[in-house]
Specification:
The complex is a heterodimer. Chain A is 23% helix and 37% strand. Chain A is α/β, with parallel strands linked by helices. Chain B is α/β, with parallel strands linked by helices. In chain B, 26% of the residues lie in helices and 33% in strands. The two termini of chain B are 15 Å apart. Chains A and B meet through strand 19, strand 20 and strand 21 of A and strand 23 and strand 24 of B.
Chain lengths: 438, 482
Amino acid sequence: MTDLKEKLLSSFIAFENQTNIDSYVHDIRSEAIKQFESIGFPSKKLENWKYTSLKNLLNNDYSVLPKLNNVLEFKDIRKYLIDDIDSYKIIFVDGKYCSHLSDTTHEGMDICTLSAALSQSKYELIVENYFNKIAHDDGITSLNTAFSNEGAFIHIPKNKFVEKPVQIIHFSTGNESSLMFQPRNMIIVDENSQVQIIERHQSLSENKVFTNSVTEIYAEKKSIIDYYKIQNDNPQASLIDNTYVHQERNSAFTMHTFSFGSELIRNNLNISQNDEFIETTIKGVTIIGEKQHVDHNTLINHNKPNCNSHQDYKGIYDSRSTGVFNGRVLVKKEAQKTNAFQSNNNVLLSDKATINAKPQLEIYADDVKCSHGCTVGQLDKNALFYLKSRGIPEKEATALLMYGFANNILKSVKIPEIKTRINHIIANKLGVKIGFNL
Amino acid sequence: MSKYTEDDLKKELETKEYEYGFYTDIKSDTLPIGLNEEIVKAISKKKGEPSWMTEWRLDAFKIWKKMEEPEWANVKYKKPDFQKISYYSAPSNKPKYNSLDEVDPELLATFKKLGISIDEQKKLAGVAMDVVIDSVSVATTFKDTLNKKGIIFCSISEAIKNHPDLIKKYIGSVVPKKDNFYAALNSAVFSDGSFCYIPKGVKCPMELSTYFRINEAGTGQFERTLVIADKGSYVSYLEGCSAPSRDENQLHAAVVELIALDDAEIKYSTVQNWYPGDSKGKGGVFNFVTKRGLCEKNAKISWTQVETGSAVTWKYPSCILKGDNSVGEFHSIAVTNNFQQADTGTKMIHLGDNTRSTIISKGISAGKSQNSYRGLVHISARANNARNFSQCDSLLIGNKCGAHTFPYIETKNKSAQVEHEATTSKIGEDQIFYCNQRGIDTEKAIALIINGFSKDVLNKLPMEFAVEAQKLLEISLEGSVG
């Protein structure tokens, strides 16, 4: 079995041959592969990867340029969609855009694919202005940049309220025994516009899947972006999700991350506030068991004065699962009058489960209000007794308490259908038949 | 009184010189600079150590040679050249003193200038001081009183000669030679330090104290402290440091090991006031210290520290809570000013059942300094019902400084309860206004607020030290503390 890094490096030429080598992106890809060659995959020696090892993940013989394009019908994928609301859909199967399942638009805005944006001349300027401008050049992101070709492309022009949410779903059907995908999404929301986005990665087979996704999000002046990530993939799948957000004056960005599935999930969420009066809210619920591993790595860069950030992550860990919260708030010298709040609460249900939390504040300005709190504990025994004494079986009572624990995060979900869906997933995950619509 | 503004305060802070910067002219006996096996052997020989100790040092030296200086801390400095340091300096005229009168009067004057004259402390506070100037213990007081109780309190080199069994058993047991770069270096070249043994069931009748100063130019201070509290005993140990003004950066790499056996309690307080460098960031001491304590069943170790000095501080007094029901505490005030950098905190390693730990850390940064809290709370899978509470507050004075918090929380047991809280803020205008409105001027108001901010920790210091700590806060942040 060849080393995955070697394999990726040698596949790069084959990949490049399929694309237009005269394009602007070509140079970026070539630079990125060089960067990846010199850095490689992150190891536990890096402070940011101290608690997450990719060793097992990288030990598979992935097919790095999956060829097959299985035909999926709507009925196959229906249950993975939030299908009770009208929405735009950008659907990929095995890394390829699947037009018959998708519902895209070019009317007054662009909700389509990155490959379309990269190949058509009318998008040239946008690509040059935005592509790979905020993504970092660490090993894992560079790798994605080198192989970036397909993913969602959303461009909302000025003063536009997008009435339907956009669903971005990456399916893998995988006839090969193990597959690697590198989707790349680019989202630009112009001045005074508003959009809601739901993102999901789903494997439909029992093969090993390794997804290394990068999303660049630009929130221009006064824009409002509401982003949901539903991570409930099957236990053979792993996901490294790198999201880079660039915010301008008066913009508001909200991200909810729901992590229930996969063998390994690593969320790298980097947000940079580049002007004044910006709001950033990032929240997450993690409920995992078995040998699952979820790592939330967040960075909020307060570069300018008068901005707010709010972080709230809750996790429930059962069996041999491990959870990591590595949240970093960086307040630059200039960023006076910053309000930053960070909270991380965890419940351990088993003695084999582990939680590693590292909430960090790095502050270089003096007129700020920054605080963080982090707790690890158990469910309240008295509350449990109270419920049991009223005839609620232990399992359901425990589930109720856990739901209550996570409910704070669900409260701020603005699309009711997502809330219902998450409730179902939580009930499933906890093995109870309660519809938490209390 | 004219209105005292924050700008005035800032100006005062910048121009405030190190008051304790004076040089005592005592003839010193210094080894050639540089570090190699010969030097290690020479140090060992000079101290008349038995061969097992020499071997131990050489072993540590071999380990050190293979190690690299750590870089993960949030501090920036020019790495010291370990071949340009003299590793041993001892006052050369060192007869054994029976009483204080015999001590070199210049030495006594030094202490007087520091405001901690030995005789005064002896009379007033009943403190037994093991005075260390440039690494060699020159005066040990109150020995008789301690002897009667069976307490051993002497320099570590004496202990190596007189109590080899205890040393062999415990040295390096909490901080192994290969623990980290500076611990390995210290194990190879430590010049002196204090040793303390409290026998079973004895409550030490007085606060034990050592005072360290770095005197000779270009010498590193490598002291080693070993405190053993046998079953059911109690001891309160005080350690103070200060160094005169010197331009080149001096290195201080100490190792402190505490061992609290079943039901014992050790209280270890430090006031650290090494020379922090001048207002332009020139000079100052590099303080890279490894301090760790081991708690057996029902034992308790509490660390209290007031850190006001050093150009660079890298220090994490830790507790290994090995025995069931053991307790670890950490109380810290770290003040940085001008170009000082501090990366300090603690590690609480919970291994036994029902172990508890408390961390209270207060950071005050002013000038262009950087002040970081870095702490680890580790609950192992077998530690049932472990409990931790951490609180880290930072106060910023001026907009050129930084305050950072890097807590690590690792929990592997479901019955654990861990809470961590941190805040960062500046002195609120509303707080000052509230005081002004009640007739308290701005200067006093700031003093009041800083005092209140650090009270939780100052209260934990023994009386004798609280006074000095207060004084040091004044020196570091004069104008803001009344």
